[in-house]
Specification:
Number of helices: 13
Strand content: 5-15%
Radius of gyration: 21 Å
Helix content: 40-55%
Number of domains: 2
CATH topology of the largest domain: Aspartate Aminotransferase, domain 2
Shape: globular
Strand order of the largest sheet: 2-10-9-8-7-3-4
Largest sheet: 7 strands, mixed
CATH architecture of the largest domain: 3-Layer(aba) Sandwich
Distance between the termini: 53 Å
Length: 401
């Protein structure tokens, strides 16, 4: 058989690296070891019962066939009403295209607005699929960085502005940010809006964690004058309603852009699962007690984990008000271990403690000049009891270094 010749583009295709870490954790567990899973942002809490029942009813009612690529009208109307109301803007059905999860919106956005060689600003560290899709589709990846302080992570504005030139076309903005839990102040969000308008950039506003906020009211960049008509919102049911495996989300933006998204969907997945869309309607319009309970349990985990981490010598942590991630500075611990690399640090810790986590390198290529070392703890898939046990293992190991 002749050697298989794959597309040259594949060399630029990345992955969601938390899944790669899962392989190491699974192998460690298969040897009879206990694993404390802080690596994957899945949720080990059941989807609220009312959503499950509404979906079962839809199946019994034979809602099991093809639907339009843009989604069933009832769900599109509901998303337009609820998402618009929460963000103080007006959307209608034509502004919504239902998606099989959050990720498809990233790819469709890039395919809609980016030509090969165009510059795309994206957060780094950030969700790794941004970088993967930019480079796979032959764009010019422009990672902008953050500044860490005791008050949390803020965008490095000077660094971002220096990246912009006449080929820059897109800005990806992830407020309530994975992996750092970063949350823009109102002033920072207005600054981002001004940059987008000044340089005529299209904005992808990744709002996957919009409702995972432990106090106060979330904000969206679309509510700022001039932004609604140049922004596409990435919305997903995954986090708020513990529906990660359901694969249900939406793209929300200008009508002419959504027409393109619908056409891309027809070419790609045909349509989003029919009966699950009725579960989405129930999620948004039915009882919110389930979502409230999910948020309550996540807050308990955040408070427990942050308290235990802050007891560890050599670790610096700012506690975010959103998402279900903590992103501590572990530079001193890293140096005490004399680790050869992030992977060396991660694997040694896993072998000696069973604690599994992602490192900064799982969230985009490191930017020149980075000196501090960070790791990410996801607390969405681990109980309070196991958080305490895992942190004791970490303390016992890291304190001996």
């Amino acid at each position: 058989m002749n050697e298989i010749k794959f597309s040259n583009k594949l060399v630029n295709l990345g992955t969601e690296t938390a899944f790669a870490v899962s392989g190491d954790a699974t192998r460690h567990a298969s040897k009879g070891n206990t694993v404390y899973p802080f690596h994957l942002g899945d949720i080990n809490i059941c989807t609220p019962h009312n959503i499950i029942e509404a979906t079962k009813k839809a199946m019994r009612d034979k809602k099991t066939g093809y639907v339009p690529a843009s989604g069933i009208p009832q769900l599109r109307d509901t998303i337009a009403e609820v998402i618009g109301s929460q963000r103080n803007v007006k959307y209608n059905r034509e502004n919504v295209v239902v998606q099989p999860g959050g990720k498809p919106t990233i790819l469709k956005f890039i395919n809609t607005f980016m030509n090969p060689g165009d510059g795309v600003l994206y957060p780094n560290p950030g969700y790794p699929i941004y970088e993967s899709q930019i480079e796979y589709n032959q764009g010019n990846a422009l990672p902008y960085r953050y500044i860490h302080s005791k008050d949390g992570f803020k965008i490095d504005r000077d660094h971002l502005e220096k990246l912009i030139d006449n080929k820059t076309r897109i800005l990806i903005y992830n407020n309530y940010q994975n992996p750092i839990g970063g949350e823009s102040s109102t002033e920072e969000m207005h600054w981002i809006a001004n940059i987008a308008q000044k340089h005529d950039l299209w904005v992808l506003s990744d709002e996957a964690y919009f409702n995972i906020q432990y106090s106060g009211n979330p904000q969206s960049i679309v509510s700022i004058p001039g932004m609604k008509d140049r922004t596409v919102i990435l919305y997903t049911f995954s986090k708020t309603y513990a529906m990660t495996g359901w694969r249900l989300g939406a793209a929300i933006g200008p009508e002419n852009v959504m027409q393109i998204f619908s056409k891309l969907g027809t070419n790609d997945e045909s349509c989003t699962n029919h009966f699950i869309q009725y579960g989405g309607i129930e999620a948004l319009t039915g009882s919110q007690k389930g979502a409230e309970e999910i948020l309550k349990r996540l807050k308990q985990r955040r408070d427990t984990l942050s308290s235990k981490l802050n007891e560890l010598s050599g670790l610096k942590l700012s506690v975010p008000n959103s998402t279900f991630y903590l992103f501590p500075d572990i530079t001193k611990i890293y140096e005490r271990m004399n680790a050869a690399s992030y992977e060396d640090f991660r694997k040694k810790t896993l072998i000696n403690t069973g604690v599994s986590f992602c490192t900064r390198e799982h969230f985009g290529k490191t930017i020149e000049g980075e000196q501090k070392k960070y790791i990410r703890f996801a607390f969405s898939g681990i109980s309070v009891e196991n958080i305490i046990k895992g942190m004791k293992k970490l303390e016992d190991y890291w304190s001996t270094l």
